[in-house]
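Before a colleague's protein record goes any further, I have to sign it off. Thanks in advance; the entry in question is below:
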Amino acid sequence: MLLTLQVLVDNSCQKLFSSPHTEILHGKASEGFKLEAYDKKDDQEKFTQEEIKSDKVFKRLEQLNIYTTTYNHPPLFTVEDSKKLRGDLPGTHCKNLFLRAKKNEMWLIVCREDLKIDLKGLGQKLGGSRLSFGSPERLLNFLGVMPGSVSPFALINDKENVVKVVLDKDMMEGSLLNFHPLTNEKTTAIKPDDLAKYISSCGHNFEILDLN
């Protein structure tokens, strides 16, 4: 069985916590973090709920024979949160823009976290569409996640394949890409080719565009 590596990182405590679908990476935590044990009941229950959210993603990755590494951390709601709290995690850190064009035309734009996106210019690249940010209600309806947790992994929840996907060309030339697996309390590192394989397995086509 293919297993996913998982590292638990946070600001306190000393040991690792395992889950049924992961191996533990024995070694040094990222700079600025210490390994945390979820010893309190409330923390344990919360951790279990987050595991359930991510479990469908990890099962799909396993079915596809895709190897990933997952890090647990405090909730990250914005790029700024991520920069402050994630430590020195390897790979390219990414942001995901859930956008709306026509009434039910939804887009997921996946790019490097520091890339500035001009929605008007991007709309021209996408056929002249006028783009705006999708509401939290639409995000939940189409991708099954809340703001702060959106990523290409959430395409597994888009059963009707409504959301159109654009991937940043420069991002896809990196060695590892970091995304939340349906929860903003985890970050999963995946190779670009494997990300493309995962997206295709969800029934979605995608465009790779130069977003500079």
The chain has one domain: 4-209. The CA atoms of residues 43 and 133 lie 33 Å apart.
